[in-house]
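Model it.
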Amino acid sequence: MTCWSLPNIGQFVCHFESSLIAVALEKIRQQHAKSTQTKEVSHCDPYCQFEVFFF
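Modeled.
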């Protein structure tokens, strides 16, 4: 993950990973997908979390 060793900077920085998740799930489900990040290590969260929306 991009943010694993970053200090608390108060911003989400894993844009590449978010896009990679969306593209992979689009190929698997054959539906358009959008991924957004809701938690991140560099945002004082214990782990990174992404939400994926299909449309």
